[in-house]
Amino acid sequence: xxxxxxxxxxxxxxxxxxxxxxxxxxxxxxxxxxxxxxxxxxxxxxxxxxxxxxxxxxxxxxxxxxxxxxxxxxxxxxxxxxxxxxxxxxxxxxxxxxx
Length: 99
Hints:
Layout: E1 2-5, H1 8-14, E2 19-22, H2 30-40, E3 60-64, E4 67-68, H3 80-83, E5 89-93
Parallel strand pairs: 1-5
Antiparallel strand pairs: 1-2, 3-4, 3-5
């Protein structure tokens, strides 16, 4: 099982807790994890990735094992610790703005 931590504002859409577990088939990549997440919670479609292109939305970041994976290829394997369920894949809502 893959563990995924989703940001608070998206948890409200899913009625899920901070962390969800997903059964991901095939290679464990950002794309396969996000596909499984959106399959389990269809309401998330378009909130993390753009509808048509499936590109990461600008204010969403991906982290695993203390590394920012946001700009990594979506089909690159995630770290073994994520694939084994030892570490979670984190989806973080980035902040911007200020004065």
